[in-house]
Here is the input.
Amino acid sequence: MRSHLDRQWQKLAPTEQTIMLQLAQETAPISISKISHKIDMIATESINSILSLKRILSLKMRFLLETETTENGNFISLTPILKEYIKNRYLLKSITTNS
Here is the structure.
């Protein structure tokens, strides 16, 4: 399973990886506008809102994101398996490397 996820991760564009890393840090589903704003704040390259939205839609079409619609709007999150994979593989690794 991990090798399959590794291959899928490598196929993602850098912007998509940034979106996935940010979503892995969220504790609850987040609105598309909020995640786009967060991505704009942390991105090393200039990512406009349209590109962020296209990348989010691309991830959704590949079933890498879960969506939820409420009276408060549309929210996205990672599937639990992907969230755990990204946390263990990339986020925890960077924390222990920086310590």
Summary: The mean pLDDT is 85. Helices lie at 2-11, 14-25, 32-42, 49-61, 80-98. The chain has five helices and three strands. The first helix runs from residue 2 to 11.
